[in-house]
Design brief:
The complex is a heterodimer of chains A (369) and B (1131). With 369 residues, chain A is α+β, with helices and mostly antiparallel strands. In chain A, 33% of the residues lie in helices and 17% in strands. Chain A is built from eleven helices and twelve strands. Chain B has 36 helices and 34 strands. In chain B, helix 15 runs antiparallel to helix 16 and helix 33 packs antiparallel against helix 34. Classes of the chains: A alpha+beta (369), B alpha+beta (1131). Chains A and B meet through strand 1, helix 2, helix 4, helix 7 and strand 9 of A and strand 16, helix 12, helix 30, helix 32 and helix 33 of B. Chain A: Keywords: Membrane, Transmembrane, Transmembrane helix.
């Protein structure tokens, strides 16, 4: 039944408006449809190779220029001065790790001048400062100087035996690294070291604040069981604003390490105090006097004393440079393989299809349905 | 199937019988409703009669709990103010994903398990729940508003006391009320017509709101109200009918008058549905039968179909793999954790970082550790994928619905949002013929009366031939059409031509044809039909009044309709219907020569693709009629299985028929059908044509539609000059291989001829064989024949054979037939269509799409994996049942090849990406455990952990899932064979998952170990800085990875990546500046500022990202070079 009326209706329908004809809604956004083949990827691999290898070389050279000296003083490098033929580690172990102290001296020689900024680190190996239970065992509110009851996260170092909150609470604070390392040149010129400026300035300014009347507060509240003195006496020089929660050694320690092998900044060389050290640490013989308080043998940990210069890439670590070089070389090899592949493997050229579909696109845009 | 006069019912479906078995009785008195519900009694509405047995109070008390009064108030809202929060939460927690999240959050609160920050862990679930709740709330508010608007409409209700109609809100109407509906007003409830202002006791309805049909429907008053002495409002009667149900095409009732003894039947023809609009007629009065939420239209709108895409099976499989990996690494870590802590022996008290006693309770510790790792690694099983999948699918659907190429008259409508990907995996298309492949726009072509062709009026003989008169009278009156008089004042004029309306296209075109041939129906009521006979010169007219004695409507089992009329003293039965349904009932008195000529003609018509109907008549004696009518009346009053009873009764009278002739009506193919079918065939999709037409018609349509390609010989071409020859495939812009495929000739296999051969073989051997054996043998033979053929094979099966096959060997048959390139089923019924799909579903590996337009396709559409309805001229039942509704068959081409393939590749990319991206995250944390004593510590802070896979990386995935195109639309259509890429799921195989997992492990190793090795000696890289730099590499790698995975790069992807990166960076910078102690124990204050200043960070991150991408990039290059999926031809 095709009556004229219906034909008219049909025409009207064809004229009636269709769905909004925007590129977005009709899925016709302009696009680049790359078909990556050995052919099209060749320049990519070449470019990566050409960029990465030089970067790698620069990084390796940079790393090699950094001078670093490591001294592992866990056991035999630190023989007790008081008890003959005994390592300080053994002294502590014999005292059953209950607060015994031991002093030792170790001399060493630097073959090169450590020029510029010189950093002194203590390094710990096999020390799981990132353990889940350990890393949570702190109360940031307490460290902000608030005197509220501390969080139960600090367990089992939340409260002392008599029920008052430990300041600072938690396992991290309790296990603060407390060896003291003093360096002297040739055994008589003490190397001037900076105890401040080693923590992040923002940490010291914002995250760590002493409570009001700190001296009294720390004296009246119990200190962590492993500490020899309260937090207000972490630095013997009381004028430096380097005590209580704002002690920089403490702040550095509280910024927990990511991996079980880590180093933490201990001191910086003061370039201004003495003319001998105004260009850095000159080569020569040095003596390190260690007050060995921190036991690590119970978990087969190692302790290191590290002296290092620095570069724009940080410390000495050739890994990144070699990784760049390796990746670059792999890309170059791939480039060659693909070049061969491209020359030998004849396939339908996908680009031809692409051209054809582009032509069809244009035709569609011109009204072809 | 267009030649149905009435819509076939679905009475054999279990769904209807279930509602019927749930009986209910409602008795009510006008203006004072009371309800009673004894079981196993029919639904009863009383009008002006008191409820017979039980007193109203007793009934009310007895049933108060079970049923509220049936007022006409509708409530489609799901919540109210009080129930919103609990009910909505309850509904949301029925999703597995939400429960999974909630359990993990709960576990995280147990102190010894605690893995993430307790507060932060809430964020993702809270956001998901809130967004969903807001969406639900907005939808419910909309429903509430529209409900209120509908409920407050005013209707006119009959007040018994004043005996007038008074206004009343819709919501206050109740069952048993009598309402008056005026012209252009909407019917407020399901009502039974009592009286009409029109003289013919009929009324016209616009049912567009219900089924979308624009033609008017005629309804009439039940015959028993016609000759009443008082108004219907005052009569007392009882109506027994079906309990409320959702079948909008069926109503069956019986009126019992308190005065009279006779029961009077009423059916769908007397029944007005809520939502119809009254036209032309001034007003009608009706009795409310079903009200409010029990009305048919509301009941039927509540059906939901739940279908799942095939891709979900792949997801579930991979989720299982992921769960296994998750379980393994959780148990491994938990075990190693115990081992590691105990390795310090009894010296643990001196180990500063061992806080708890490792020897305390190792079973509890192991259990707690396992749970903690499950929380930590939870994203390994990407339950959130189901959430993002839902979102992406809705958006994909939106873009499909917006496609201007799919719009002709209606835009494509999508009802099911869960099966987009299936469109890319359709292996079989089951299609209806009439209205789907063809336009269903019928054009009268020819008739054959008494063995002679006539195609125009001028060809008729001068002399009045009674046979021709009978023939044309049948065409004019044997139908359910009705007449709309535009100018009734001209009715006496000679050339008056009324307008015919009706719901059957065949009837209308034949009625119109009869009118052109000079036999014109000029008026029609429920009792009489006036037919005007014009002589050949159009100068004289003769009006004859036929009294309608009985009208036996079309049904799908009889496949014919008939009308019994009285002209003066003669009683005639006029019948028309499918050839096969009438032929066996012809009287032996018929001239055999004429019979064979007509048989020949019928064949010719069929070859040309015409639809032919056989017309016959029978003269009845009064006695014959009366004795039969008794039986018929009994059947017509039956409440159970009325249609079957009527059908049986009709069969009794439709015998001894005199052959009059044959009509030929052409149904043209829709535009673009041959091209669409050719495209689908080239795409590797097999088409099964299921039609109610006969074999020859089906074959000729199939040939015209390029479904089969049979070499044409001149001898078979003798009759016709206008034969449809499949247009050359070259015209359609296919590439070479597709064209070659189309040019192959089809080898036809006829199931029936195979069956005959088998029968002969069997007869040689033994005396008789059961159907079972015959079918089995035929199928195995068929399989051999198909296997032996090199060229494409097409199988032809008829409905009769099919019913035997479906009874005995359905699966074997389908398996054998699945090898054929196409299968034609002729003379199949709606039930067979559905059964066929249902069996095929259990056999085929690929998805099945069913497309159809008529009510007889509904079963098939519902049953299939993906039902597509064509907006047709046969009502909108199919549209209501379909998952998609399109205007033309042609849409399938773009829907499957472009959108289907796109959706599939996009979604599989999304899925694989999600698996891989989450796995990379899990493995970074997993590697970390080797360096923190398997304690479950993570250097990334909780916000990165919870937002990594959502806020920071979700946008580019979604952009890719919406805009990526593995091939441009034009190429997909130009090279249909590319469809096989998605059809065989080449982009999502089992190994795709494992490759992505391997890639994830590579990426996570690079990210973790490069950072580990590079920052080893850097004192300033503490746990937070390390976490930040790892998070940075992870997120940038994930974002850039999207570019490697997609096949094209457009502005949406670039901008979403840039945006996501900025969100991450902005979030971090703001958070690190402001948050000193936000999350206990994880203060990231200033960390990013410090880290971003370091040269080492940038060099490490750059190398990490490049190296992480390198393998996939290289392998993609190699793969594309050696085996580019879109450059080779799949043959």
């Amino acid at each position: 039944m095709s009556t004229p009326a219906e034909n008219e209706a049909d025409n009207e329908h064809q004229k009636s408006k269709k769905p909004a004809d925007t590129a977005f809604k009709q899925q016709r956004l302009p696009a680049w449809q790359p078909i990556i083949t050995a052919n099209t990827a060749l320049p990519v691999f070449l470019a990566i190779g050409l960029i990465f290898i030089p970067i790698g070389i620069v990084l390796v050279v940079t790393s090699e220029r950094v001078l670093e000296f490591d001294l592992d003083y866990t056991d035999t490098n630190c023989m007790s001065l008081n008890v003959s033929n005994t390592t300080c580690a053994d002294v502590l172990a014999q005292a059953n790790y209950t607060g015994a102290s031991c002093t030792c001296q170790k001399s060493f020689t630097l073959d090169k001048d450590f020029e510029g900024d010189v950093y002194f680190y203590y390094g710990l190996v096999n020390y799981y400062q990132n353990h889940r239970r350990y890393v949570r065992s702190r109360d940031d509110n307490q460290l902000l100087g608030k005197k509220d009851a501390v969080s139960s996260d600090c367990q089992p170092f939340q409260k002392s035996v008599n029920g008052t909150d430990i300041t600072p609470c938690g396992a991290i604070a309790n296990s603060k690294f407390n060896d003291s390392l003093v360096l002297s040149m040739n055994g008589n010129i003490s190397v001037p070291l900076l105890r401040t400026g080693i923590a992040w300035s923002t940490d010291k300014a914002v995250k760590f604040k002493n409570p009001d009347n700190p001296q009294n507060w720390f004296a009246t509240n119990p200190r962590p069981p492993n500490w020899q003195q309260d937090a207000w006496h972490l630095d013997t020089n009381l004028t430096d604003d380097n005590n209580g929660y704002q002690n920089e050694d403490f702040i550095v320690w509280m910024r927990t390490a990511a991996m079980p092998t880590f180093r933490k900044l201990y001191r910086k060389l003061s370039l201004t105090e003495s003319t001998t050290f105004q260009n850095g640490l000159p080569k020569g013989t040095y003596v390190l006097t260690i007050t060995y308080n921190y036991p690590v043998t119970s978990f087969s940990g190692r302790k290191q004393f590290i002296i290092s210069t620095t570069s724009w890439m940080g410390g000495k670590n050739p890994f990144l440079g070699w990784a760049y070089i390796t990746v670059g070389i792999i890309c170059m090899i791939t480039f060659v393989v693909f070049l061969v592949l491209h020359k030998t493997w004849k396939t339908d050229d996908p680009l031809a299809y692409q051209m054809r579909s582009m032509q069809m696109n244009q035709r569609t845009a011109a009204g072809y349905n | 199937m267009g030649n149905c006069t009435a819509v076939p019912t679905l009475r054999r479906t279990p769904h209807i019988s279930r509602t019927q078995s749930r009986r209910a009785t409602v008795s009510s008195i006008t203006n004072g409703a009371q309800v009673s519900v004894p079981r196993s009694e029919p639904y009863i509405v009383h009008h002006n009669v008191p409820s017979p047995v039980e007193s109203p109070i007793w009934v009310a008390i007895k049933n108060r709990r079970r049923h509220k009064p049936h007022t006409n108030r509708i409530k489609t809202t799901r919540y109210n103010i009080l129930t919103f929060i609990p009910k909505n939460l309850f509904e949301q927690f029925r999703r597995v994903a939400n429960v999974y999240f909630a359990i993990l959050i709960g576990l995280n609160w147990i102190p010894i398990v605690n893995a993430l920050s307790k507060q932060v862990a809430f964020i993702p679930l809270t956001v998901i729940l809130t967004i969903t709740a807001i969406k639900d709330l907005v939808e419910d508010l909309k429903r509430w508003r529209s409900d209120a608007q509908i409920n407050k409409q005013i209707a006119q209700v009959y007040d018994k006391k004043t005996k007038t109609f008074i206004p009343c809100k819709w919501q206050d109407l109740s069952v048993g009320n009598v309402v008056r509906v005026r012209t252009d007003e909407t019917v407020p409830a399901d009502i039974l017509l009592l009286s009409s202002a029109s003289t013919e006791s009929t009324c016209y309805l616009d049912t567009a709101a219900i089924d979308g049909e624009t033609n008017l429907k005629q309804k009439s008053i039940p015959s028993c109200f016609l000759n009443l002495d008082k108004t219907a409002e005052e009569t007392s009667f009882e109506l027994q009918c079906d309990p409320p149900n959702d079948d909008i095409y069926r109503f069956c009732g019986r009126l019992l008058f308190s005065t009279g003894s006779n029961a009077c039947p009423c059916d769908n023809n007397n029944f007005l549905l809520r939502g119809c609009v009254l036209r032309i007629t001034e007003y009608v009065d009706g009795l409310i039968v079903y009200a409010g939420n029990e009305t048919k239209i509301i009941k039927s709108s509540r059906q939901t179909i739940s279908k799942h895409a095939l891709i979900e099976r792949y997801i579930n499989r991979d989720v299982l793999f992921s769960s296994l990996i998750l379980t393994t690494i959780c148990l491994l870590c938990a075990g190693l954790s115990i081992y590691w802590e105990r390795s310090f022996g009894d010296k643990w008290t001196f180990v500063p970082f061992i806080v708890d006693d490792p020897f305390d309770n190792s079973v509890r510790d192991f259990f707690a550790n396992t749970l903690r790792f499950v929380i930590l690694f939870q994203v390994m099983v990407p339950i959130a994928l189901y959430v993002s999948l839902d979102l992406v699918r809705v958006l994909q659907m939106y873009t499909i619905a917006r496609d201007k190429h799919l719009k002709y008259e209606h835009p494509i409508s999508c009802r099911t949002f869960t099966i987009n990907e299936d469109l890319g995996q359709i292996g079989y298309v089951f299609t209806d013929k009439t209205g789907t492949l063809t336009q269903n726009k019928l054009v009268f072509k020819m008739m054959s009366v008494g063995g002679i062709y006539y195609s125009g009026r001028s060809e008729l003989p001068e002399k009045n031939d009674p046979l021709i008169q009978h023939f044309l009278t049948t065409l004019a009156i044997c139908n359910t059409s009705f007449i709309v008089h535009d100018h009734p004042e001209f009715m006496h004029r000679l050339d008056y031509q009324p307008k015919y309306e009706g719901d059957n296209a065949d009837d209308l075109v034949l009625c119109q044809t009869a009118s052109q041939f000079g036999v014109r129906m000029i008026s029609r009521s429920a009792q009489t039909i006036t037919v005007r006979y014009l002589d050949s010169s159009n100068s004289n007219k003769q009006d004859l009044d036929y009294d309608i004695l009985c009208l036996l409507p079309f049904d799908s089992t009889r496949k014919r309709m008939s009308i019994i009329v009285r002209l003066n003293d003669q009683i005639f039965l006029y019948i028309k219907g499918a050839e096969s349904s009438i032929w066996p009932h012809l009287s032996p008195l018929n001239d055999t020569h004429t019979k064979s000529t007509i048989e020949q003609h019928s064949l010719t018509f069929a070859e040309q693709g015409y639809r032919s109907l056989l017309v016959a008549y029978r003269q009845l004696t009064l006695r014959e009629f009366e004795s039969w009518f008794e039986r018929y009346r009994f059947a017509a009053n039956a409440l159970d299985n009325r249609e079957e009873a009527i059908s049986d009764a009709a069969t009794e009278i439709e015998v001894d028929l005199m052959l009059a002739g044959l009509t030929a009506v052409e149904d043209k193919l829709q535009d673009g059908v041959p091209r669409a079918i050719a495209t689908l065939r080239c795409a590797g999709i097999k088409l099964w044509l299921l039609t109610g037409d006969k074999q020859a018609t089906a074959l000729s349509t199939a040939q015209a539609a390029s479904l089969i390609n049979i070499p044409q010989t001149l001898s078979s071409d003798s009759h016709s000059t206008s034969r449809n020859i499949a247009p050359a495939a070259t015209a359609w812009d296919f590439d070479r291989s597709a064209q070659a495929r189309l040019n192959q000739h089809t080898h036809m296999i006829y199931y029936s001829s195979q069956l005959i051969e088998i029968d002969q073989q069997l007869r040689n051997r033994e005396s008789s064989a059961s159907d079972d054996v015959r079918t089995e043998k035929t199928i195995s033979r068929m399989r051999e024949v198909i296997a032996a053929q090199a060229s494409p094979v097409s199988l032809v099966v008829t409905g009769e054979d099919l019913s035997v096959i479906l009874r005995y060997k359905p699966k074997e048959f389908i398996r054998a037939a699945s090898e054929c390139q196409s299968v034609l089923f002729c003379r199949v019924s709606a039930t067979q269509k559905r059964e066929l799909v249902s069996v095929a579903k259990s056999v085929f590996k690929h998805r099945i799409l069913a497309i159809g337009d008529g009510a007889n396709d509904v079963g098939m559409i519902r049953e299939s994996h993906c039902g597509v309805a064509v907006y047709g001229r046969e009502g909108s039942q199919a549209v209501a049942a379909g998952d998609f509704a399109v205007d033309r068959f042609e849409c399938l081409r773009r829907l499957l090849l472009v959108h289907g393939a796109w959706c599939f590749t996009r979604t599989s990319e999304l899925i694989l990406y999600t698996f891989m991206h989450n796995c990379a995250y899990v493995f970074v944390i997993f590697f970390h455990q080797f360096f923190n004593g398997f304690s479950g510590a993570v250097s990334l802070h909780s916000f990165y952990l919870t937002l990594y896979s959502s806020l920071f990386t979700v946008l580019p995935q979604c952009a890719a899932a919406l805009f990526d195109q593995h091939v441009p639309a034009e190429r997909a259509l130009h090279e249909p064979q590319l469809y096989q890429y998605t059809l065989h799921a080449r982009c999502y195989r089992m190994w795709s998952y494992w490759i992505n997992i391997l890639d994830a492990i590579w990426q996570s190793s690079v990210i973790f170990f490069f950072a580990y090795l590079s920052y080893r000696n850097e004192f300033y890289i503490d746990v937070s800085a390390f976490g930040f730099s790892i998070a940075f590499s992870m997120i940038v790698t994930s974002l850039i990875h999207v570019l490697l995975q997609t096949s094209r790069v457009d502005i949406s992807i670039i901008s979403s990546i840039a945006f996501s990166f900025l969100v991450f960076l902005g979030f971090t910078l703001v958070f690190d500046e402001t948050c000193v102690v936000c999350i206990p124990g994880e203060s990231p204050y200033q960390v990013s500022y410090h880290t971003l200043r370091k040269a080492r960070f940038w060099f490490t991150t750059a190398l990490t990202i490049f190296t992480a991408m390198l393998p996939r990039f290289t392998i993609k290059c190699l793969y594309n070079t050696i085996r580019y999926p879109f450059a080779v031809n799949y043959e």
